[in-house]
Design brief:
Length: about 80
């Protein structure tokens, strides 16, 4: 039962953009996890830029072993 939680800067999405995210992420997850589309869920969570470091970067730093891809902007200390 893969659940994908995407945090991002606030923005408006069109229905077409949301459909594109759904289709692309679902395709990658179903292929990689060898599961059906009906087992995948996706959520989007907007995070204000001024809260990004506290809410997102701090979690990435605390759980870096779980990261599959690190962002190019992140400079580990």
């Amino acid at each position: 039962m893969p659940h994908i939680h995407i945090r991002h800067y606030p923005r408006e999405f069109t229905a077409e953009q949301l459909r594109a995210v759904d289709e692309a992420v679902t395709a990658a997850v179903t292929k990689t996890f060898a599961t059906g589309e009906d087992t995948v869920s996706i959520s989007l969570e907007p995070i204000r830029p001024e809260d990004w470091e506290e809410q997102v970067l701090s979690e990435m730093a605390a759980r870096r072993e779980l990261l599959v891809k690190r962002p190019g902007y992140w400079k580990e200390s």
